[in-house]
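Write out a record, focusing on structure:
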Amino acid sequence: MARPSKWSEADRRHAYERYIAGDNAAEIARDLGASAATVRNWVRKGDWNTERARLRQSPEHLEAEIARLSAKAGEGELTYAQTVQLSMLQKTLDKMRKAKPQPKPRPIVAQAMREDLLAKALSDDYGLLPYQKEFLQDESRYRVVLKARQIGFTYLIGLSAVLGMAAGRDQVIVSASEDQAKLVMGNILHHAERLEVPIEEGKDREVRVAGARATALSTNWRTAQGYTGDVWFDEFAWAPRPDRLWGAVTPAITRVGGRITVCSTPFTPGSLFWKIAENHKGQWEHFSRHKITIHDAVAQGMPMPGGIEELRLNFDAATWALFYECQWAEDGSNLLPWSLLETIGSPEDPLEEPGAGKSRTRVDRFGRLALGVDVGRVNDRTALVLVGEECDPVTGAFTGKLRVLRWHELAGQTFAAQRAEIANWVASYPIERVAIDRTGLGMQLAEELAGDFPSLVEPRAFTAALKERLALGVLRLAESHHLAIPRDPDFMARLHSVERQATNTGIRFDAPRDSRGHADAFWALALACERSFPETRRAAVEVW
């Protein structure tokens, strides 16, 4: 009597589906808890190789395999053998397309419409710059763009999305922030109107044009599944959990013959965007590549009032190289390295403007709200940073973790306007403490606010000793992961600008002064967090 098999029919069926999808016998065996020899025996007896070879004659099957392996690569799970397999599959697909072009997955009418609109967009009258035209004509299915800020690429995404919708494909746009998503949607509407494409619906998060839909998704990978179409990852280097996001969204292309475009300014080396842009270990060979620095853009005709050198004055050297010269983040004497800022950056979840019902609901998740104010008038800016301590959703107890809830800068405002703005924040949020710089020109504003809110306002004199205490306190909070900040490049750049500077008397903490200020947002954050520094949880804070 034959011994019953350890493996059920369902196990064999699962193994078959995995093998046909492209997994090898060793991977399947490991997941099943079987030996590789057992799975290879199933492959031989069932003649699965013949079936897999037959399916690989279909471009659709190859595309599905490539998308599946690309998703694995995004999650950091690709083996060397799979990297080679991915490259071979892409080459096979490319040869197949050249030898026998496949019918396009869109109607002839839609294709003709798309080509007509593309011709209009490429005409001199439309006003695109050479690097924008070059990208628009790149028909690769996988594209990556390493770019400088403010060179008109979000504008180009809007135009490309309209062309994709005209061709009959939905557009799935994953933006790094709410503001960025609204900007892309606005550009889609702008180009649709300019190209005279019928607009059926226009919202902040969804636009319908020419019978197709563009959807702006958040960077929450848990809610980013279930969509199909061309996929755009906008400012991908700044997205939280990019590996999970990549795995959740990339399957959107498989059923509709869509394309994936990944674009961003650079951030830290080692990130998923860095791996794609740099073709790490050859795993991303199937992407076409575009790189546009601010120098490239200006050389190709992008207007730059005042010139590059004037723009350069607004940034420290490290931030300039990162934002405008497409160089990956490096750190020297900076107090808060980019790598540390990345670890404490949270998905943007900004509060609504004061008075909106949504803002009060979100503030209720936090307690012990503190407002830090660093005062500026002419050369610097006045920065306001609102910080709250997270509450346990079940017990309501404080967790000890601080989060930046809102930040804002006032440039060139009168002291009366600044006083009114701070009073508005105090009226709009349940703030328990306002710490304000009273050094130099800030003295009058600090005294007036202390008179307006005597139980809330703490004027603080910025001595060298206090600045050292504040700087090291923020550093300790960040290193212990007791501080969360918006994943906002501008805010992060303000924090990154503070440096350790050697002097004859020791080390001082400061930042180069530029037209954006003097690390004002950093000092406002430090003032707001001061009561939560480890040593001040036990000792009283001295008020000057």
Observations:
- Residues 101-109, 352-361, 536-544 have pLDDT under 50 and may be disordered.
- Residues 373 and 436 are 5 Å apart (CA to CA).
- Residues 9-99 form one domain.
- The two ends are 92 Å apart (CA to CA).
